[in-house]
Amino acid sequence: MYNVVGALLVTFALQWISESNVHQEYPNWPRWYWSVFIINGISAVGYLLFSLWFAMHCSITCHSLGTRMLVNFARLSIPDNEAIAQLRVKFYSSGGMLDKATEMIGPEGEKERASSSDSKFSKSSAEEQRKM
Question: What is the pLDDT of residues 61-119, one digit of tens each?
Fold first, then answer.
């Protein structure tokens, strides 16, 4: 939007300088006033050219930033084979945690653990009944 407005203003300023008939319409103006008119018009064109340049630079910068954000943040990365291998979860394999746990506890340890938890439960429930 700024580019369009700036281009229209530059066109207007250039036409104002080049196609003006001010010297024919006002022949009684002093010579220094003509120079002020020309200097004013040239400085307006320079200012508007800088305005166009900055507007174009801003537009390009904003579009490149928007493109980078879309590419970097919105697009999912494509995983390679190593990343896929890291995501795999082994549910059961021989020598896994289940086998290690049964080796540590053992079949006799499982029975002892079950009997000790039953005896602890019975002791704690008996103590609670006495307190009441």
Answer: 999 988 888 877 766 778 888 888 787 766 655 666 666 777 777 666 555 555 555 55
E strand or H helix that includes residue 131: helix 97-131
Residue in 72, 80, 20 with CA at minimum distance from that of residue 44:
20
Terminal-to-terminal C-alpha distance of the chain: 84
CA distance 26 to 9: 25
Neighbours of 114 (CB within 10 A): 10
- Give this prediction's pTM: 0.48
C-alpha span between 123 and 132 (Å, rounded): 15
